[in-house]
Structures are given as C-alpha cells and as structure tokens.
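anyone seen this seq b4? input:
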Amino acid sequence: MCHGHRRHGFRRFGNREEWLERLERHQRDLEQELADVSDVIKRLREGGPTPQETATV
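predicted toks r here
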C-alpha cells in the first residue's frame, strides 16, 4: 500500500506568522465589505441613491 503524506490545515499557508498575517488581512477585507454593505443599507433606508445609481459609465 502507498501512504500519502497527510496535510494539516494551516500548513499549506506557511508558518504561524504567515497564517496570522493572512487571516488579519482577510478580516480587514471583510470589515471593509461589511462597512460598504452597511452604507448601502443606510442609503436605501434614507431613500438616497444606491451605488449603481450614482455610478458613471
């Protein structure tokens, strides 16, 4: 029988510091996306224009 090497979760991303850096960057991206969504919700509730309505072509 041939036994393959088992990979453990975070090792594919490198060492602990790299893992932490990637997760923190991802968290910042998610926080920005949440802020954007919150802004659109606020505009819709206030009857203001949505981003699609304010975009120029």
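The chain is about 60% helix and 0% strand. The first helix runs from residue 16 to 46. kinda curious what u guys think
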